[in-house]
Amino acid sequence: MYFWNTEALSEDIKNSKLTENDWKNYYLAGLIFLTLSIYIIALSPKENISSVLIEAILMVGIIIFGVSITFNTHKASDNNVANYISKMTALSFPLSVKFFTLSILIGLAMGIAEGAGLSLEFEQAWFIAVLSLSVEVLLFWRLNTHLQNINT
Question: Where would I find the beta strands (DSSP E) of the chain?
Fold first, then answer.
């Protein structure tokens, strides 16, 4: 796996030297890198850094577990109409739209609660961490369910 040498990677892609497992590893590495980048950026303005760090660590674990489970479900298929990354990309988009919409609704409810004086900063940070982790688990669960449906 190349972390810097894009010329060698592009040459391997051109010559079809990457296995499906290699593609999965690039997908996994990209997700982890993106996730960690988001949390590193989020660290500075937060008052409750503990919740952000715990959330980031758990999120990476969920991503590793989720990608492993969905990849194994994908591999169980004998009728591979599309490769793993294509399936994950296509299925992730509408699921992400659904979870984004749910997050907006929960954010509105939190805003209303805060406006009514029902919110404390410390508890809100942990609530958001639990919500984010729950959405990630639900995303991988739904992805795996859809991959199982594709396989049958």
Answer: none
